[in-house]
Here is the input.
Amino acid sequence: MSFDGQLPPKMRLLRAAAELLAKSAGAPVSTRQITQLAGVTAPTLYHHFGDKEGLFDAVVAAGFEEYVAGERDFAPSGQPLEDIRRMWDNHVQFGLNQPELYLVMFGNIRPESRPAIVADAEALMEEMLNKAAAAGQLNVQPREAARSILAANVGVTLMLIAEPATDRNLELSTMTRDAMIFAVSTDQAKAASPDDSGKSSVVVAAIALNAALQASHSDQLSSSELKLFLEWLHRISTSPNS
Amino acid sequence: MSFDGQLPPKMRLLRAAAELLAKSAGAPVSTRQITQLAGVTAPTLYHHFGDKEGLFDAVVAAGFEEYVAGERDFAPSGQPLEDIRRMWDNHVQFGLNQPELYLVMFGNIRPESRPAIVADAEALMEEMLNKAAAAGQLNVQPREAARSILAANVGVTLMLIAEPATDRNLELSTMTRDAMIFAVSTDQAKAASPDDSGKSSVVVAAIALNAALQASHSDQLSSSELKLFLEWLHRISTSPNS
DNA sequence: TAGCACCTATAGCAACGCTATATGAACTGC
DNA sequence: GCAGTTCATATAGCGTTGCTATAGGTGCTA
Here is the structure.
């Protein structure tokens, strides 16, 4: 269970910190826990990493390597915007797979002090967007697009992490993703899902009626009728395509 | 400088905590600082608030009152989507004006434990989106749209807070905002019939849905269900008032 | 005046991040 | 082969943290 093997203490500390972080379920991880699991004493930690934050930065750096590897681990599809989608999904999955690590990386915001990792992630996204721009598929500067997309990506991932795993709805991610990509892309690029115009007027009208009915109680239907009516309405308004 | 006035200790604690939080520049605020500034001792804090988090929750609740007040403090423009834009801008401004409070409210994400305030903010946004939906301006469920928009809104605000105040570029906010709103809105600004002047939105939406259903066959309902559905729809859409 | 909640203070615990100091081991120069 | 230097780890403990067991004061009602 402990890292008492023949690894050097520095490595043992890194692994112990990463493991405790992953299992901490959001609770803070103390240096005493880490050093005990690593089988060393406190000064060793401070000798190698300066302070607790230094150790965590090192863990984050290792985590970022993994993150970058994931972000590059697919063959370019030839459609840069499609690759952006995969980067987005990969980002979300990374966050959901290792929420504690993700929170240390992207969730530890402090005023006026930007985590270096955010800039790195933006650069990664911008690099990919440059290809889209070169293909004439971008209607804004790649840098601005990257910042905007990443901000939304982080926001969505944080929200999903905060939700109980049981009722996590990944549609929040895909919906926001496509919205952002569509917005920065030139119109003909078919950025949104194929059935863009497929959201027929039926669905739109059903959504409108649903909202209107809930706002003002109509007395044209009995309560039992209304219940069934709303159920059908919901079925129509959430129909996958027209 | 201290709150030694005639206010009750509970209030003094609240104000001291809020003040220290606002001035802390990201550094953690200790209970000893708070109790000293409030002019009370530790047990008083725990008597009134249970623990440190309870006190901070109370501060957040007060902050949320202010947030909600800001979100409601403008006359409805008659264009729901324009109001959504103002809610977005208001959210960002709230975060930039009181970054530490904002970070406690929206930045304190933990796995699988959703801050109550997020749900409240979503409800606020959804409420406004319902008006847009009733006007036929939404092509997704108001709830999903609210979650998506708020996630992006939080992500952008966190990014802006993390940036040095000098080179904060609010275009990141407006760009992301418009991207999200555009994505959830219908292209044709008015899906409902043009003659919506005299009739309630329920009737207008029912008429629109009726027409849309007849034009394109939805297979979400069986034929018998559809028959009854259309009958009810007719009853609603011919309702004299409501 | 007696009793009873309510509220606050004294004093202190365990855990925290961190460090002054010391010891052992490995390498270097002569 | 030995002193000098540097690196790496341990012992012990400092100051601060969130929090609490216990007790005392205060004002109300009976």
In short: Confidence is low (pLDDT under 50) at residues 188-199 of chain B. Residues 9, 40-44, 47-48 of chain B lie near DNA strand C (CB under 10 Å from a C1'). Chain B touches chain A through 78 residues (CB under 8 Å).
